[in-house]
């Protein structure tokens, strides 16, 4: 189980030529399958259509026309209101700062851990890797109160730094598990040759292991970024201030206010979804490369 | 793997078949690697180990978060056993497992097979890729944001009721999330929508691995599509099925964001789940000891589930090798 979490662009390449007889045989049924699956895919997109339809409506338009009507005008004031009301650029910065820092720091910690476990084969490594794997499955509720309490005591409460530290550790628990198993199969001959050339452990890590691992690390970096970006409970508890909150927390706390009418809700959701969709589009190729890399063996 | 492909550059040794160092030398060499584990280990103890122990301790106390906790032994756990909300929340977890594990895995198998086997091979691969992206899209979004959109869609004056009106089913108009009878089924439907893309993508990647010759041989033997699906596809992608079932079950046990965004556990706790129940007990009711007990029980259940899954998988792999 490595990086099978995202689509690979070429996952659907046909492998074998189809016998001619078979194509005649199933001429009709393949169209039925296509229609059914396409209907399912369209149904998946319906909520997005609803959202888009109502994000560009004025409140008056919404109350007369209802949720299904076509907007009478291209109304962007709802979007602009949400943008200024929650100070969206600041939220964007908070989310990017937190997710970006966690991605970089998490990968570094994972790499260092995995170097000791996968290459160094320190004693008890199986137990240590198992511990990291288990830690990744823990419910965050089992950590949150002590973290919240201590953060308050030492002045880290309501700072982005607290969330960065916590998620660096949580994400690197998964990263360590993944990289340790990848490094377990690292070609020994490379390490020994480098050692014979007089390279120390530190040099071998950065000159031999790191370059070879770069594709896997890139995938891990992106996963950490997106996972942290989408996190909710810990940012909700730790970040109470408008100046520190992330995008999902900002939207959720406005929802609680009951001040948001339907068009503003949709406008806010639309703005909040755009970055995630952009990442998906930007990173799709890197991720699919990482997956094919992980799949070839 | 990627490793062997990218081995290049000046680091590539000319003599890659050196004998391994002696055992003694290697052991002394390994000692130095502990240093690399040090930062990760310290962080791990501070952020995961210590808080976990802290929660375990707090579950044996009565505490509001200020002053000193009072040690009360197992009282919290005794109260939990008599707490109806506690039992309801775990019963609701079973519903979440149906919506986040059982249905997505089964639907995912069918969809992945249809996309890979039929659409990918008999139409353009691009068609299959586009359809797959539609199913996967909800997986890349912050689940809370998706939950807020769904919360509006399912409101009494939301888009879903308007849609029912528009297609002549106005009689079915309903407060989907507000009625105790329909709240949980509605949340389950949303969770299926959220989860479905994950198994589809994993299973489609897994199907690539399956040797096409197996299918050809089965076809020659006269096996129909369904038999091939059962005997070859399901058997071959069993490792991925295990991983999907495990990760989705853990996710279902931990689910928080969607419940927070859709219903806050209501109405009348019909959609309450352990993690939201714990959150609410910690931060709204300020019963830190009791919340810790809920969290501890949830943690134990997750550990048991994970260990059972991993043990089953291990046993399965051994059986496969034995055959």
Proportion of helical residues of chain A: over 70%
Q: C-alpha Rg of chain B, in Å?
A: 26 Å
Strand-pairing-aware structural class of chain A:
mainly alpha
Distance between the termini of chain B: 27 Å
> Low-confidence parts of chain B, pLDDT < 50 over ≥5 residues?
1-28
Give a verbal description of the structure:
The complex is a heterodimer of chains A (297) and B (323). By secondary structure, chain A is mainly alpha-helical. Chain A has 2 domains: 20-78, no CATH class; 86-259, Orthogonal Bundle (MetI-like fold), CATH 1.10.3720.10. Chain A has 13 helices and no strands. Chain A has helices at 20-25, 27-55, 59-65, 77-85, 88-119, 125-137, 141-153, 160-183, 188-196, 201-230, 233-238, 247-257, 262-295. In chain A, helix 10 (201-230) runs antiparallel to helix 13 (262-295). The longest helix of chain A has 34 residues, at 262-295. Chain B is mainly α and 323 residues long. Chain B has 2 domains: 47-82 and 287-323, no CATH class; 90-274, Orthogonal Bundle (MetI-like fold), CATH 1.10.3720.10. Chain B is built from 16 helices and 2 strands. Chain B has helices at residues 2-6, 23-31, 34-58, 75-81, 84-122, 125-140, 143-153, 159-166, 180-195, 197-209, 212-220, 225-236, 238-254, 257-262, 274-283, 288-322; strands spanning 61-62, 70-71. Chain B has a two-stranded antiparallel sheet. In chain B, a hairpin with a 7-residue loop joins strand 1 (61-62) and strand 2 (70-71). The two termini of chain B are 27 Å apart. Chains A and B meet through helix 2, helix 5, helix 6, helix 7 and helix 8 of A and helix 1, helix 3, helix 5, helix 6 and helix 7 of B.
């Amino acid at each position: 189980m490595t990086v099978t979490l995202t689509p690979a662009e070429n996952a659907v390449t046909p492998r074998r030529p189809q016998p001619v007889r078979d194509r005649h045989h199933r001429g009709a049924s393949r169209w039925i399958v296509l229609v059914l699956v396409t209907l399912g895919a369209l149904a998946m997109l319906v909520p997005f259509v609803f959202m888009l339809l109502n994000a560009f409506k004025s409140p008056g338009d919404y109350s007369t026309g209802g949720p299904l009507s076509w907007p009478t005008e291209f109304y962007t004031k709802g979007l602009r209101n949400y943008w200024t009301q929650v100070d969206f650029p600041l939220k964007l910065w908070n989310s990017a700062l937190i997710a970006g820092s966690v991605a970089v720091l998490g990968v570094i910690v994972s790499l260092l851990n995995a170097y000791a476990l996968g290459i160094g084969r320190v004693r008890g490594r199986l137990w240590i890797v198992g511990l990291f794997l288990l830690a990744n499955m823990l419910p965050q509720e089992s950590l949150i109160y002590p973290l919240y309490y201590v953060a308050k005591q030492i002045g880290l409460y309501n700072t982005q730094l607290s969330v960065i530290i916590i998620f660096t550790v949580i994400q690197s628990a998964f990263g360590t598990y993944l990289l340790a198993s990848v490094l377990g199969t690292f070609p020994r001959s490379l390490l020994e040759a480098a050692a014979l050339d007089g390279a120390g452990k530190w040099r071998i890590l950065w000159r031999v292991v790191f370059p070879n691992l770069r594709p896997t690390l890139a995938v891990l970096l992106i996963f950490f970024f997106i996972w942290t970006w989408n996190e909710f409970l810990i940012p909700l508890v730790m970040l109470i201030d408008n100046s520190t909150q992330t995008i999902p927390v900002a939207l959720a706390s406005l929802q609680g206010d009951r001040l948001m009418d339907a068009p503003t809700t949709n406008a806010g959701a639309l703005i909040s979804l755009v970055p995630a969709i952009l990442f998906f589009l930007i990173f799709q190729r890197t991720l699919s490369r990482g997956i094919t890399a992980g799949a070839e063996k | 793997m990627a490793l062997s492909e990218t081995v290049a550059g000046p680091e590539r040794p000319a003599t890659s078949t050196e004998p391994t160092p002696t055992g003694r030398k290697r052991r002394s060499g390994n000692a130095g690697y502990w240093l690399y584990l040090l930062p990760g280990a310290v962080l791990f103890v501070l952020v995961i180990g210590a808080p976990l122990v802290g929660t375990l301790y707090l579950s044996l106390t009565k505490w509001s978060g200020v002053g000193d906790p009072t040690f009360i032994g197992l009282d919290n756990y005794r109260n939990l056993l008599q707490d109806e909300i506690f039992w309801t929340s775990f019963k609701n977890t079973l519903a979440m497992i149906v919506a986040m594990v059982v249905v997505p895995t089964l639907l995912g198998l069918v969809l992945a097979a249809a996309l890979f086997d039929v659409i990918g091979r008999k139409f353009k691969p691009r068609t299959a890729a586009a359809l797959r992206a539609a199913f996967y899209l909800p997986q890349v979004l912050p689940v809370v944001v998706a939950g807020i959109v769904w919360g509006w869609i399912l409101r009494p004056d939301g888009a879903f009721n308007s849609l029912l009106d528009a297609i002549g089913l106005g009689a079915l108009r309903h407060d989907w999330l507000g009625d105790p009878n329909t709240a949980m089924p509605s949340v389950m439907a949303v969770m299926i929508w959220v989860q479905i893309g994950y198994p589809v993508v994993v299973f489609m990647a897994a199907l690539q691995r399956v040797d096409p010759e197996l299918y050809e041989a089965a076809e020659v033997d006269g096996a129909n599509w369904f038999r091939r699906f059962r005997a070859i596809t399901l058997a071959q992608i069993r490792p991925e099925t295990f991983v999907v079932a495990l990760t989705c079950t853990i996710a279902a046990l931990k689910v928080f964001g969607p419940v927070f965004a859709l219903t806050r556990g209501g109405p009348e706790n019909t959609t309450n789940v352990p993690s939201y129940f714990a959150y609410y007990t910690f931060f709204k009711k300020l019963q830190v000891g009791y919340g810790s007990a809920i969290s501890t029980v949830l943690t134990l259940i997750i550990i048991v589930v994970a260990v059972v899954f991993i043990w089953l998988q291990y046993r399965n792999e051994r059986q496969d090798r034995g055959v």
